[in-house]
Amino acid sequence: MKAVGLLLMAILASSVLALSVPASFAQTTYAQGKPKKGDASTRSVQGAVTNPDDSPAVGAVVQLENTKTLQVRSFITKEDGIFHFYELGTDVDYKLKAEDKKTGASSDAKTLSSFDSRKQAILNLKLSPKK
Predict the structure, then answer these.
(1) Which of 37, 52, 62, 79 would you call most buried, defined as having the most Cβ atoms within 10 angstroms of its Cβ?
(2) Looking at the domain 42-126, which fold is it?
(3) Residues 6+ apart with CB under 8 A from 106
(4) Distance (Å, rounded) from C-alpha 33 to C-alpha 39?
(5) DSSP 106
């Protein structure tokens, strides 16, 4: 009977160890992953895209280009014309521009500079008719 009890305790102890190893691994993996939103090494940008008549640009495609890696992220605006990009590096310049694919209207490009220290930058984009 005593041997059965010791065997059960050994199985229980190994189960607890097996469960705790993946949990600690997950913590280490996460710590090495992407910074959390609001981290000191990240920032965000948001704004509104408007049509030439100052109405919200519904369905406009906002492109954010990392000028260091040339990676492009896109955001399609909803009814309010608002866009946002999170977890942006603070040591990189980003170029933003918007385009309405239906009308061909586009905005001038704006730059979010690495020298801009705001954690939550606001950049609004205004569409101009296709030339």
Answers:
(1) 62
(2) Immunoglobulin-like (2.60.40)
(3) 97, 98, 99, 100, 127, 128, 130
(4) 12
(5) B
Residue 42 CA, distance from chain mean position: 10
Alpha helices in the chain (DSSP H): 2-32
Beta-ladder partners of 43: 88
Chain position carrying tokens 């008719």: 129
Query: Is 83 in a helix, a strand, or coil?
Result: strand
Spell out the per-residue pLDDT of the chain, length 131, in tens: 544 444 445 554 444 444 444 443 333 333 333 445 556 789 999 999 999 999 999 999 999 999 999 999 999 999 999 999 999 999 999 999 999 999 999 999 999 999 999 999 999 999 999 87
What is the per-residue pLDDT for 39?
Answer: 66
Residue type, 62: V
How far is the C-alpha of 94 from the C-alpha of 84, rounded, in Å? 13
Taking a C-beta distance cutoff of 8 angstroms, is the pair 41, 114 a contact? no
Q: Report the distance separating Cα 43 and Cα 46, nearest Å.
A: 10
Place of tokens 């009977």: 1
